[in-house]
Write a structure and sequence with these properties.
By secondary structure, the protein is an all-alpha fold. The protein is 77% helix and 0% strand. The chain has 9 helices and no strands. The longest helix has 26 residues, at 54-79.
Length: 183
């Protein structure tokens, strides 16, 4: 890669990293071009050189971060030997998130922004649909009844768990209940 192209990629990555930091810190709608440029150490015009709008950089940063979290969860889940171990792995993958941490806040802010942005909603829906399909395929291999529906419930439960964590402590019975879904 030419030095100029490599520098452009590095700047683009700095902008995405800055956006992923700013979304949970300030909230989706409070991230401006100037604030983003300051955090990334560039001029505001550089933001618009790499992205057509502030919405585009926020979307790419958030969807990229969400993709990484889902990929890590997917990896742990599908490495499990039994469906019950898969549920345990899925729950363990989100232990690091307490609802008030930056990644939890990024998910919350992004979901909220998606209620007003059709393109963002479609990108998140694709992530969720793909994740559910992989979990469903794994459940099918392990002969779990109604694998697609079960995968949808597991994915929704994890999302709900993350949203509720900042509000109320979770019940220790949660694992037991979720394991029943995969018997």
């Amino acid at each position: 890669m030419a030095p100029t192209a490599q520098h452009g990629q590095e700047v683009r990555q700095r902008l995405l990293a800055a956006a992923a930091e700013l979304i949970p810190e300030r909230g989706w709608t409070a991230v401006s071009t100037r604030v983003l440029a300051d955090r990334a150490g560039v001029t505001p015009s550089v933001v618009h050189y790499h992205f057509s709008s502030i919405q585009d950089v926020l979307t790419e940063a958030a969807v990229g971060a969400m993709h990484q979290v889902l990929a890590a969860t997917d990896e742990l889940f599908t490495a499990a030997i039994t469906p019950a171990a898969g549920v345990d792995a899925m729950l363990a993958s989100v232990e690091q998130y307490d609802g008030g941490d930056p990644m939890s806040l990024l998910f919350t802010e992004t979901y909220l922004a998606a209620t007003r942005d059709e393109q963002l909603r479609a990108r998140i829906a694709t992530l969720v649909t793909d994740f559910r399909a992989r979990v469903s395929d794994w459940l099918t291999i392990h002969q779990v009844a109604e694998p697609a529906a079960t995968a949808a419930v597991l994915a929704a439960t994890i999302d709900g768990l993350l949203l509720h964590r900042s509000l109320v402590p979770e019940s220790p019975a949660l694992t037991t209940v979720l394991r029943r879904l995969v018997r």
